[in-house]
Amino acid sequence: MRGEAVKFLKNLRGEVKIISHNDVDGICSLAIMLNFLKKRGIREEHEVTKVPIEKLDKSRTMIFLDINTDNALKFASENSLIIDHHQFSKKPGISFYNPVETDEKSYIPASYLVYEVCSELENMEEVKWIAAVGVIGDKGDENSELCRKFVDSFENKEELDLISDYIFSATLVEQEGGYEEILKILLEAKSSNEVIQEPYFKECYDTIQNEISKSKNKIEREGNIIFVEVISPYNIKSIVASHILEKNKNIIVVSYSAFEDSYNISTRTNTGINLGKIVKKIAGLCGGDGGGHRKAAGAKIEKKKLSVFKEEFISEVEKFGK
Hints:
Elements lengths: L1 H9 L4 E7 L2 H17 L2 E7 L12 E4 L3 H4 L7 E4 L11 E3 L12 H10 L8 H10 L2 H4 L1 H8 L4 H18 L4 H10 L3 H5 L2 H16 L1 E7 L2 E7 L5 H10 L5 E8 L2 E8 L5 H11 L3 E4 L3 E7 L3 H16 L1
Parallel strand pairs: 1-2, 1-3, 3-4, 4-5, 7-8
Antiparallel strand pairs: 6-7, 8-9, 9-11, 10-11
Helix pairs in contact: 2-4, 2-5, 2-9, 4-5, 5-8, 8-11, 13-14
């Protein structure tokens, strides 16, 4: 658990490769870790990636941040550390920190976990606000009392919330090419207020807000499940799903977009159903991968299996209600 992660970082020498998820939580986790490694004089190489990971050199010392534990274990060695908060099926035999191990309902984003672990070895106060941005980006403050108190401790909470939206927008507009620019801004900023003033972020944010307002969505409803196909050149399906969720009670939103020969899917809910388990199970039946949290999960499936995914999803939700 946390002690294993602290011990791994304390004994870390030489060079390490960091693999981090490409969402707000993953990017903020990486920024915090990079700040920590610089303080310790440890050389690093980092990679911001989509999930699930498909290829990776197993021979190096590695740190996985906000990468599903089951997925990371396919590439991790005994010289690896995993800091994650997604549900997992197999307990690692290596150093890892995931609160879900002791509390299945735990929802503490990786940004907070990385900040917490690094703070045991170095003074990380200067990047505390980055941890809060990551927590907000993964809705930790809405799903965890610990995270809510953490975020509420900042007087500029609204500013941090906007930065989270800025980062998310930049990842959508720039995709792979924007990660280094985002990290550069976060690590060079002396305060969160400096980030708010960044023209780069403002431009990306305005682009996505404009796209949301004009995107064409096809909506179907089956009981308390809302299926929505999002047609846009940008990956805004999770935003659309969250907006629908905010306007309805006791529902499940399945938002999906076509991409080459596959469908990318985002699910959100404000019910008691465990989306992480359901999506992981069904994605495997549809020639893809998936998983996530109780209230938010995602998947990538074969394009021809969309109807199967919908049918199986409806069936699993009905089982939950019995």
